[in-house]
Design goal:
289 residues, alpha+beta, Chitinase A, domain 3, 3 domains, two-stranded antiparallel ribbon, 10 helices, 7 strands, 52% helix, Peptidylprolyl isomerase, signal
């Protein structure tokens, strides 16, 4: 905290001291001096206010900000007390039970996660990934469209225009691979047509392709040129998977690992709970009457 901010808070505390009435209630002077506000027997410590004021809030605004914070805190305490005094007994019992259940659920969840973290096998081979994919691939469906393509965008007055066009349209891998050496001559490019791309990213790379006209351009084994105002796009579409098609293994491979780990966690949690019951029965710590 900056010296200026500390000074602002000190001024806030001095101002609040004039507004807040304290009751000793067994608290010594030193303890009382560390408090910023009181609602009956509940106190708000000054150190709870140290980091609440945003950096850009200064001067009188700092004081107003702290006042609002304390008023909000006080309102909460007063409402809690009012609720405790006025809620019907059956409602209080219901709330206490909900709190207890929530606390129990959090404790159980944290404990199971700790056990799973210590026991789970996170090593997944490529064969396991492929086996999992083959077993569930009918569930892995394309949301919109996936495309494999390559393209280059070249200024029409570029001195290497003809060379880039020839190499891009060549069937020789050596010619295509050598295009990387001319990448500085291109406005933009993407040459790895082994990578699957979501169609939304293609709209950004090739802005002349839209949702309405994409079927005219995005077709498997289709090459074309598109002339823009000052440049030309050379595009080679290798493969297209439409909406509802099965997602390729290469595209979903990274996600498969998370799915397998999650399945293992679920199975391990189930096994842990079964083992706990079994162990309790064997040791006579659990029985049904």
């Amino acid at each position: 905290m900056t010296k200026f901010k500390k000074k602002c808070l000190q001024l806030c505390f001095l101002s609040l001291s004039a507004l807040v009435a304290y009751s000793c209630d067994g608290k010594d002077a030193e303890t009382k001096n560390n408090m910023a506000a009181r609602v009956n027997n509940t106190y708000l410590a000054k150190d709870k206010l140290e980091d609440i004021v945003p950096v850009k809030v200064t001067g009188k605004d700092s004081l107003a900000f702290v006042h609002r914070f304390i008023d909000k805190w006080a309102t909460k305490q007063l409402l809690i007390e009012a609720a405790q005094l006025n809620l019907p007994e059956d409602k209080v019992v219901e709330i206490d039970q909900l709190v207890e259940n929530f606390k129990s659920d959090l404790s159980i969840k944290a404990y199971l996660e700790l056990l799973v973290q210590n026991k789970i096998d996170t090593i997944i081979s490529d064969n396991q990934l492929k086996e999992y994919y083959e077993s569930y691939k009918s569930n892995f469906l394309v949301d919109d469209m996936l495309v494999q393509l390559a393209y280059v965008n070249v200024l029409n007055d570029n001195t290497n225009f003809a060379t880039i066009k020839r190499k891009f349209n060549s069937t020789k891998s050596s010619e295509i691979n050598s295009l990387e050496n001319l990448s500085l001559q291109m406005k933009s490019y993407f040459l790895n047509d082994d990578v699957w791309i979501e169609v939304g990213n293609i709209y950004e790379r090739l802005p002349f392709i839209t949702l309405e006209n994409r079927r005219d351009f995005l077709r498997s084994n289709y090459s074309f040129e598109y002339s823009a105002e000052s440049s030309t796009y050379f595009v080679r579409v290798k493969s297209v998977i439409p909406k509802g098609g099965i997602i390729p293994f290469e595209f979903i491979k990274k996600s498969l690992r998370s799915l397998i780990i999650n399945d293992r966690k679920v199975e391990l949690m189930k096994q842990i709970q079964e083992d706990i019951i079994k162990d309790a029965k064997n040791n006579k710590r659990y029985e049904i009457f």
